[in-house]
Amino acid sequence: MIGNISNEYGYINYNEDVVANIVGVSTMECYGVVGMASKNARDGLWELIKGGSFNRGVKIKVNDEKLSIELYIIVEYGTKISVIANNIIQKIRYNLENYTGIKVSSITVNVQGVRV
To answer: Would you say domain 17-115 falls under CATH 3.30.70.1350?
Structure first.
């Protein structure tokens, strides 16, 4: 479980899939992102994830009550990658800390491809 939050009313435990879905949806809301990338273990090729399975392009590690997030994305051709990455980082950090209260220590954005 990720993010054990307790108060006088009880406990809240977040599953890793829930946090990964929040990260995936937040990423897809950013301009210039075509989709999440998933590594095909057999071929070593990166493929575009279509549909609602955005958590497959997200890796989450927990250390000392803080999250380290690693994203694999595919961006749109003609966009500035550094601006897209900064927007993704800001949006994910804001959404996770607002929705769940979990602090994010680092976010790594890996651009795996460019699509037209």
So the answer is: yes
